[in-house]
């Protein structure tokens, strides 16, 4: 076991960086292409969104180049102090590099501008979040999509019935309007979605709104809390698909779509026209050829059979 972990140490020459900052960026298009060239020169891969309201990225690079990236970003007055969540890995977690200019960092189309630098919920450290979440009479809302919740979430959190972030405003108006006087806690992967989500809640008239600063990824690394009260794994948007959170009480909360046994293997349906992400245990994956349904498996068989 010792050998295995020291091997991981020495193999962990790559870093994954996850980061964001809400800050005014003039000419996002021009900056995106400049930033692409810079990342390319570092051999970095990943997905970075640039918008007039800031930057949001996940990238993987060799440790030295990742370091250089962080230093160079910190030297830019716009991004000074930006927090990087860092993981050691053995290889890239992306196949390519994308740097795109978009109208919003996270698509949350409401009829007004929401600027987290103007209006956002109170920020809680992992310890504060843990303590508050343990109290009664608190409403914990997962600010992510349903398929992220299904892989893992805080115990007792409400599962939003949304597939994308932009569906949140309607979902809140339809489901939570009676809870405006309650104490509300929200969380997301790295914190970026909550900053807008809590601003929206305050704007809608919710009185007491707080968010987990740095999201689940920061919570998972807190040496005191060690991920307690989070069940399952945290969904991430790179080839890893998930990262562990709870180092004290491990539990699988998701079930194989086919046989119902606990499984956190999230795979895409192998039928190209479907591609739906679903949980499948190793045995069922073999039986089903990686398809999500009998229909998809039949399509696969047809496509594979010789004419
Ligand atoms: Zn199964
Ligand atoms: Zn399918």
Please provide a written account of the structure:
The chain has 307 residues and is of the alpha/beta class. The strands form 5 sheets. It has a 5-stranded mixed beta sheet with strand order 4-1-3-2-5. The longest helix has 14 residues. The protein is globular and about 60 Å long. Bound molecules: zinc ion (2 copies). The site of one zinc ion has 8 residues, from loops. The site of one zinc ion (ZN) has 8 residues, from loops.
CATH A-level architecture of the largest domain = 3-Layer(aba) Sandwich
Element-level helix/strand string: HEHEEHEEEHEHEHEHEHEEEEEHH
Q: Strands of the biggest beta sheet: in what spatial order?
A: 4-1-3-2-5
CATH top level of the largest domain is Alpha Beta
- Could you tell me the CATH topology label of the largest domain: Oxidized Rhodanese, domain 1
Helix content: 25-40%
Query: Which ligands occur here?
Result: zinc ion
Count of alpha/pi helices: 10
Q: Give the overall silhouette.
A: globular
Q: Provide mean pLDDT, rounded.
A: 93
Instruction: Report the count of strand segments.
Output: 15
| pLDDT < 50 stretches | 1-10
Largest sheet: 5 strands, mixed
What is the rounded distance between the termini? 51 Å
* CATH-defined superfamily of the largest domain: Rhodanese-like domain
Strand content: 15-25%
Q: Provide the number of structural domains.
A: 3
SSE-based structural type: alpha/beta
